Amino acid sequence: MLFSPFEIIKIAWKIYTENFKLFVRVTVWGLLPAIALAVVALANQLLGVAFYNYGLLLYLAFSALSAIILIWIQLVLLRLVNGSVTHQTINLKETKSLAWHDIVSYFWVSVLTSIVVALGFLAFIIPGVIFGIWFAFGTTIFALYHVKGRAALSQSKALVTGRWWKVFWRVVIPYGLYVLAIAGATILIELALGAPNGFKELQTYTGPWWSSIAEAIPSLLFLPLGSAVLVTVLHDLEAHKNESPAIPTPPTP
């Protein structure tokens, strides 16, 4: 029998707390582009129109850098979590180095997933949700097994087929709590940083210059939990892939 959603949360939390220091050594790198974006926002606020064109270019450059670093972080985290789940010793230095070579392939699997899910939502909301669960493990499968492109998506769909509703609740409930935790932490940080000046910056159209940092800290802090959920559910599905489904998969859109 598959782990219940709350068992998955418990397992993911155990992985998170036992490896917290190790995870922070990876996720902390995500603060660099966030700090750079905050500096650009501050310069734009202080210098105004004179800095606008430069600020826009720098913003785009640091946003692209942020996306690359986040992919790298996700790759490393998934492999570290997998080592914890499978009780394998993972060399952090080697894992971090190898992850740089896999960024493009991970990105491609992510793009394919996004395109398919987006097309599903354009056709109708329900197909989009179905596709989202079918292909939820595509990037994780690539990170752990180096299965690339459409093959990763096909393998993800094969694991979910016949157990769609079971997988749905085992992904949505942990991730729902995960998103709420990030949102709550972000609000608390913004309130703490906005209090000294009476929350005036929070009321502006562009928002405070430090917003990128306030948003990055909780997202990076809880990111390993999301990775732990995906890896835990993936291995659980693999361990029970011959199990007869009690609830049928939704009809193909």
Automatic annotation (TrEMBL):
Transmembrane segment boundaries: 22-44, 56-82, 103-123, 129-147, 167-189, 209-234
Keywords noted in UniProt: Membrane, Transmembrane, Transmembrane helix
The keyword Nucleotidyltransferase is annotated on this UniProt entry: no
Top-level taxon of origin: Bacteria
Protein known as: Glycerophosphoryl diester phosphodiesterase membrane domain-containing protein
